[in-house]
Design a protein that fits this description.
The complex is a heterodimer of chains A (208) and B (99). Chain A has 208 residues and is an all-alpha fold. Chain A is built from 8 helices and no strands. Chain B has one domain: Helix Hairpins (Orthogonal Bundle), CATH 1.10.287.3510. In chain B, 77% of the residues lie in helices and 0% in strands. The chains are: A mainly alpha (208), B mainly alpha (99).
């Protein structure tokens, strides 16, 4: 039974990966990657990583891919040109490179003397990979990694907000303050705050 | 299923992602292919964790997931900034990333 599920999930994962690489419309690329990630979560479940599978579905498929979809919709994903100018052989060269990389990795994996790899896997406790065990490890043995990850997430969130800010772009990124982020964008000189407030209270249409 | 199968799937997904990074020109799709490669690494980590009966590999996979999320946030912010400045969304034309 596990074999059937493994082959179904791995076919889904490989098909999703191929779709991500070969489809030209970025929107469908993202959807193919969603298919890949869901199959990968199934593989994680087969490997007894229950918490990781749940996190994969919630974080990747739920949050990160939606962010991708929003950005693709925002910038209007154009199709890739059929053939890049000036480098017709590049596509074949990269396919050749990928094939060579796969062969090399397979030789490295299958040719090792690690006998444990050929087996089902070592014995495990019934709580292997459950959220309670992962949480216990994160808060005891890997506390430092946990805290560093939270700092990294904070830095990335602030950095992406500053990078994708509306008005000023990248030039004044060094001089930004919190008040600068909170301030309303100055659109036209005539439209002040008081007028907007009275218009909103009167229920009238905004006049521009 | 023996752990080798999972590792071979991981290697295949990794090489597909690498070829995508080489071929594609849209930075958004290149980020997607980067996700493919990171996920292949995650799968290998989880497979090794299963092979050794040790949960520490899963912690590593979780941290890889966090780093990937950070990379996506910053990368998408960069792409939106590039788009706002009316620059072409094409890695062949974006040769310099100075402010």
């Amino acid at each position: 039974m596990a074999e059937v599920f493994f082959f179904l999930a791995s076919i889904g994962a490989i098909a999703g990966a191929l779709g991500t690489v070969t489809i030209r419309n970025p929107f469908y690329c993202v959807l193919a990657l969603v298919c890949h990630l869901l199959s990968l979560a199934a593989l994680f479940l087969l490997l007894r990583a229950e918490f990781l599978a749940a996190a994969q579905v919630i974080v990747y498929v739920g949050a990160v891919m939606v962010l991708y979809l929003f950005v693709v919709a925002y910038i209007g994903g154009e199709d890739d040109p059929l053939r890049s100018p000036g480098a017709p052989g590049l596509r074949w060269a990269s396919a050749l490179f990928a094939g060579a990389l796969f062969v090399e990795l397979s030789i490295a994996v299958l040719g090792t003397g690690l006998t444990a790899l050929g087996e089902e896997g070592a014995g495990f406790s019934p709580v292997f990979g459950t959220p309670s065990e992962i949480g216990r490890l994160l808060l005891t043995e890997f506390l430092l990694a946990f805290e560093v990850a939270s700092i990294l997430l904070l830095v990335a969130a602030v950095g992406s907000v500053i990078l994708a800010r509306r008005r000023t772009g990248l030039e004044t990124a060094g001089e930004i303050s919190v008040g600068d982020l909170m301030r309303r964008p100055l659109e036209s000189g005539t439209d002040s705050d008081e007028e907007a407030g009275t218009l909103l209270e009167a229920g009238g249409p905004p006049q521009r | 299923m023996s752990v080798e199968w999972y590792l071979v799937v991981s290697a295949l997904v990794f090489s597909i992602g690498a070829s995508g990074i080489l071929v594609k020109r849209n930075p958004l799709v290149i980020l997607l292919c980067l996700e493919l490669m990171l996920n292949a690494g995650t799968l290998a980590l989880v497979a090794f964790a299963r092979a050794h009966g040790n949960q520490e590999g899963q912690i590593f996979a979780l941290i890889v997931m966090v780093v990937a999320a950070c990379e996506v946030a910053v990368g998408l912010g960069l792409i939106v900034a590039i788009y706002r400045r009316r620059l072409p969304i094409d890695v062949d034309e974006l040769r310099e990333l100075q402010g």
